[in-house]
Amino acid sequence: MTTLHEAIVSTLVKEIASGAYPPGAVLPKEMALASTYGVSRTAAREAMQKLRSLGMIEVRRRKGATVLPRNEWHLLDPDVLGPAVQHVTDLSFYQSLLEARLAIEPRAAELAAQRATHHDLARISAALDRMAQEAHGTRGAGWPDADLCFHSAIIEASGNWVFKQLIVTVQAALDSSIRLTGSRQTSVETALEQHRNVYDAIRRRQPTEAQAAMTWLLHSTRRDFEELERNWSTSPTDPSATGGTRRQRKPD
User: Fold this and answer.
1) Residue 156: which domain range?
2) 252 belongs to a structural domain
3) How far apart (Å, rounded) are the C-alpha atoms in residues 169 and 164?
4) Three-class secondary structure of residue 205 per DSSP
5) What are the distances in angstroms from CA 120 to CA 140, 190, 210, 213, 229?
6) Is the pTM of this model over 0.90?
7) What CATH number is given to the structural domain containing 191?
8) What is the C-alpha radius of gyration for the chain, rounded to an integer number of angstroms?
9) Who's near 234: CB < 8 A, 6+ residues apart?
10) pLDDT tens digits for range 80-136
11) Number of structural domains the chain divides into
12) Each residue of 196-241: pLDDT tens digit?
């Protein structure tokens, strides 16, 4: 159950990430927040403390709560990363997420080829089957969830607890690739084949092949971003103007 202060935090994080409260802006004081949201002053204070712990605000006496620059935010916290992916518009942010995937997922695939259990393989295969069911010339509505399940299952199969903690980063990167690249993404047939190559290498216990197949798959996404970057000047504040699609859900 979401507490009152968590509901306030969620709203304010989205408003800060969207730029409604840009860096340097002063948030309403506790009394004003309590009145606006119909909560106690204690709940409003707890919300401010949470925003502070997320690195989004700085609280000073007499000055109040001031929004900090994005480079101060704890972006890997799910409470922050989700809204940030929906609103940040500079490509360097998304490129960093993709670079993180390139650092994590090929190694995870390599380890999965060595460590995956029958249950792990069944999960990866089931996700791939779901992707295939959504591949009808274009990516169906269920493709993003199936894609996320595929990549998450491989990370789980790696047996590396650190990688497992970074699944939220992969999720955000997948979401951004869908939202920004849109129609510029690799064809669904090619994408499905690339994912199948990763699974086949893991199933056949070929670590080197699995790593190479995952690297190739992710470089395909990178090429989508590079094409987008070449056209970014069309409308740098609106990804959809360059072929991307805005999405309200969580990721591909």
Assistant:
1) 89-242
2) no
3) 10
4) coil
5) 25, 24, 15, 18, 36
6) no
7) 1.20.120.530
8) 20
9) 241, 242
10) 988 888 887 777 888 888 888 899 999 999 999 999 999 999 999 999 999 999 887
11) 2
12) 999 999 999 999 999 999 999 999 888 877 777 776 655 544 544 4
Distance CA 70, CA 73 (A): 5
Question: At which residue do the structure tokens 């935090």 appear?
Answer: 9
Q: How far is CA 60 from CA 23, 67, 71, 119, 122, in A?
A: 15, 11, 19, 52, 53
Return the top range by mean pLDDT from 62-66, 98-102, 107-111, 245-249.
107-111
67 neighbors 23 (Cβ within 8 angstroms): yes
Is 79 part of any domain? no
Task: Return the number of other C-beta atoms located less than 10 Å from residue 121's C-beta.
Answer: 16
In this structure, the answer to whether residues 141 and 187 fall within a common structural domain is yes
Calculate the dihedral angle through the C-alpha atoms of 218, 219, 222, 223, rounding to the nearest 10 degrees: -140
Q: Which of 33, 68, 63, 37 is nearest to 48 (CA)?
A: 33
